[in-house]
Amino acid sequence: MNTKKRIIEEALVLFSERGYSDVYVGDIAKAVGIKAPSLYKHFKNKQVIFEAILEELKSSYVEQALSIGIHGNNVSADAGIYTEISEEKLIEIGKNLFLYFLHDNHVRLFRKLLTLEQYHNSELATMYSRQYFDDPMTYQGGLFKLLIATGKFKNVDTQVLALQFYAPIYTLLTVCDRDPGREQEALKLLEAHIRQFNANYLEDK
Fold it and tell me: What pLDDT, in 10s, does the model give residues 85-101?
């Protein structure tokens, strides 16, 4: 692993343990095993390191989404995919994404960081809301709007539909964050949730 990558890795670990505000460039350099002046050759300040973490997370998510057959951030493209897939395939995609968000080390640590910092840093609190509510709701709402237009889903309020689909999944994720031993229980509930959601809202059910 090159030095730049190690800086990002160690910074994320420290941010998740101590919060963004209580970690200094010298702390990150020490964790990497270099002097602060050496770190500045790669990143000019802590904020730039944080931005690099965000870029890594975005790239990782896109790569994961593509690996399971969706785009993850392209509503139009994904609506076409979801129109054609079976319920079993939808459950498979749902479980794969759930396990990615639960177990990917960068994603897990970043979620922990924002969970901690939402009470201390207004900018990171806003990012928490955007990351775990606003953006998923926008994506899901747009997806359901297109799926309703194709006749696949009943014509109901898309934001309510998005909330009813997404909120239980995120709740299960936070339960597993607190108690990893409940993972299998969460996966069973996730599958049951998807099946019940389809039973309630699919036009051809």
Answer: 999 999 999 999 999 99
